[in-house]
Amino acid sequence: MGCCLFVLLMAGAPRLAFVLWWLVQPLRMDATFDTFLLPLVGVIFAPWTTIMYVLVFPSGISGFDWVFLGLAVLLDISTYGGGARAQMQRTAGPGSGPMTPTPKV
User: Fold this and answer.
1) Is 9 exposed, middle or buried (0-12, 13-18, 19+ CB in 10 A)?
2) Distance of alpha carbon 83 from alpha carbon 78, whole angstroms
3) What gap in Å lies between CA 67 and CA 13, rounded to an integer?
4) 98 within some domain
5) Which of 77, 89, 100, 102 has the fewest other C-beta atoms within 10 Å?
6) What are phi and psi for residue 62, nearest 5 degrees?
7) Residue 39 belongs to what domain range?
8) How far is CA 67 from CA 10, 14, 30, 50, in A?
9) Any idea what the Cα angle at residue 14 is, between residues 48 and 83, rounded to 5°?
């Protein structure tokens, strides 16, 4: 049950899940990262990629691990892109989107 709750937390709040994971398994984080700065910057700007890197790093990154890392990068990019698109739609107001038909005169 705890694993399922962690997965739900990670899906909704990856930064919080990463911090909790860091508190629970500090040795895994120490084995993955040499400094404190890299995971901090990673979790701020690319949380999905940082989480995936921690998952695949202990056994070494090879072969299919690059696919998982690539998917995590795409998820980070889509998270930022989706947020930017939603912000543009909120600020543009209703009826001013690209799908609004223009009236014929």
Assistant:
1) middle
2) 8
3) 23
4) no
5) 102
6) -155, 155
7) 6-90
8) 20, 20, 24, 14
9) 75
- Whether residue 102 is contained in a domain is answered as no
CA atoms within 13 A on the CB side of 15: 9
DSSP annotation string for 37-90: HHHHHHHHH-HHHHHHHHHHSTT---TTHHHHHHHHHHHHHHHHHHHHHHHHHH
What confidence score (pLDDT) does residue 49 get?
Answer: 92
Kindly report the pTM of this predicted structure.
Answer: 0.69
Decide if 50 contacts 39 (C-beta within 8 A).
yes
Asked if the structure places residue 45 within a domain, the reply is yes
Task: Please count the structural domains in the chain.
Answer: 1
pLDDT in tens, 23-35: 998 998 888 998 8
Structure tokens at 36: 């404190």
